[in-house]
Amino acid sequence: xxxxxxxxxxxxxxxxxxxxxxxxxxxxxxxxxxxxxxxxxxxxxxxxxxxxxxxxxxxxxxxxxxxxxxxxxxxxxxxxxxxxxxxxxxxxxxxxxxxxxxxxxxxxxxxxxxxxxxxxxxxxxxxxxxxxxxxxxxxxxxxxxxxxxxxxxxxxxxxxxxxxxxxxxxxxxxxxxxxxxxxxxxxxxxxxxxxxxxxxxxxxxxxx
Amino acid sequence: xxxxxxxxxxxxxxxxxxxxxxxxxxxxxxxxxxxxxxxxxxxxxxxxxxxxxxxxxxxxxxxxxxxxxxxxxxxxxxxxxxxxxxxxxxxxxxxxxxxxxxxxxxxxxxxxxxxxxxxxxxxxxxxxxxxxxxxxxxxxxxxxxxxxxxxxxxxxxxxxxxxxxxxxxxxxxxxxxxxxxxxxxxxxxxxxxxxxxxxxxxxxxxxx
DNA sequence: GTCTATATAAGGATAGAC
DNA sequence: GTCTATCCTTATATAGAC
Lengths: 208, 208
Fold this sequence. Notes:
Chains A, B: This is TetR family transcriptional regulator. The structure is a homodimer. By secondary structure, the first copy, chain A, is mainly α.
């Protein structure tokens, strides 16, 4: 997974340019829809030159996904079992929504892959990904059992948070087609909405 | 939009077989990733024979999308302004989740298209689609202003319902990778979770 | 390291026999 | 209506000069 880093500055710069261009192209067109021509022209290099840095189109895609997956699960990783349950989950929602705002291309890269059955994800989902979700779901379950959280299925809670937050990146054209925002203001409205929805859903019933 | 229906039984049968095969292939691989070879072999016809019924790959895709879009928005269309606000919205959530369970290929067909920027959707989104959403958002806003619903942004409420329900179709491999259900039982858990979340979020604060 | 030229394969679409 | 054979474009990847 961790290749030897390239030696010269030029190599680093070109590799980075290729990966940035590839993120743009793969996230917009999917793996199959993306062409090396598009990646080459977006990176400012010639097509054979791109293939000098990466052996194949698939290798570029792998390098992208491999480099991003850790970033992608970081918000869930940061869910603190020692924090206040409702506030911790609301903060998680906030981090995920911020990622949709700041890294929409990465979100669509993953979405493209998963919608199409994750043919290039190998054991990532059932491996460390599932392990992290299981761990955090157990934390949420314990919170609920201690009466500090309205008892909700922790797995479906996590799914709903992924769905609602990633929606603003993955279905961006639909959201913008309906709201017609000038810039990113609608993310602030989304943040308020999601905070209100999840606060109401998560706050445990008052035992009095 | 409404082509003349084919005349003979054989034509109807073959057209239907092609559209069903195309739904399977387009939803799994996206427009670009799908090939006429795959569609032909899945429909049991030869490639030229497929092109006898439809003039091009794009025409097959158009016929599919055009035929499905009305079905797709029906659940929102059925939201009744004269019903009980909370129950109406919960019923809408239920209808959308049922569609993800029963029509996952259709959901992924749309998801593929929208994630990639809806290049073949034309004015559907900003046209009648947006008009319907605007209409129903106004209904929800009125309910909230009458104090019959916890005041939440109606647009983001609708987005969240789309996101949470379609997630079970669009991200099916991820959901199954984490839950490892034998069949569709997890949809019942999802239904219970979403009902609880939205009931808590939508019920207006008791004015006493 | 980067380019031009090209090999090779896949895929959309058509021609024409039956 | 359906098939075989084929055209032609696009796209991945490589060869080899510079």
